[in-house]
Amino acid sequence: MTFLIRPGVPFYGRQLYARALRAWRVAANLVWARWEALVEATPEGRAGAFSEYIAALDAEATAAAVLADLRPSQAA
């Protein structure tokens, strides 16, 4: 029986990487949703939509930094 597990890589490392990747994908999807909301915003609501878009970008950058800190050679 063949398993798709790299020897020497702890299981929790793969879990951490998978969770970080999932968090980044969720944050990236939020950026897209906020962008669409900004594009469709009325002139009165544009400032608030822009603030939400910037907050989503910040969250995505944070998630990307966490993902980058987990080196795939150690986690995947």
Structure description:
With 76 residues, the protein is mainly α. It has one domain (11-75). Helix content is 76%, strand content 0%. It contains three helices and no strands. It has helices spanning 11-40, 46-69, 72-75. Helix 1 (11-40) packs antiparallel against helix 2 (46-69). The chain is elongated, with a radius of gyration of 17 Å. The chain starts with 10 loop residues before the first helix and ends with a helix. 11% of the residues are buried. The mean pLDDT is 85.
Features:
mainly alpha, 76 residues, 3 helices, elongated
Total beta-strand segments: 0
Instruction: Output the number of helix runs.
Output: 3
Number of domains: 1
Radius of gyration over C-alpha positions, nearest whole angstrom: 17 Å
Q: Helix amount, in percent?
A: over 70%
Which structural category fits the helices and strands? mainly alpha
Biggest sheet statistics:
none
Average pLDDT works out at 85
Span of the ends, CA to CA? 21 Å
- Which regions are unreliable across 5 or more consecutive residues at pLDDT < 50? none
Strand content: under 5%
Fold topology:
Layout: H1 11-40, H2 46-69, H3 72-75
Compose a concise summary of this entry.
The chain has about 80 residues and is mainly alpha-helical. The chain has helices spanning about 10-40, 45-70, 70-75. It has one domain (about 10-75).
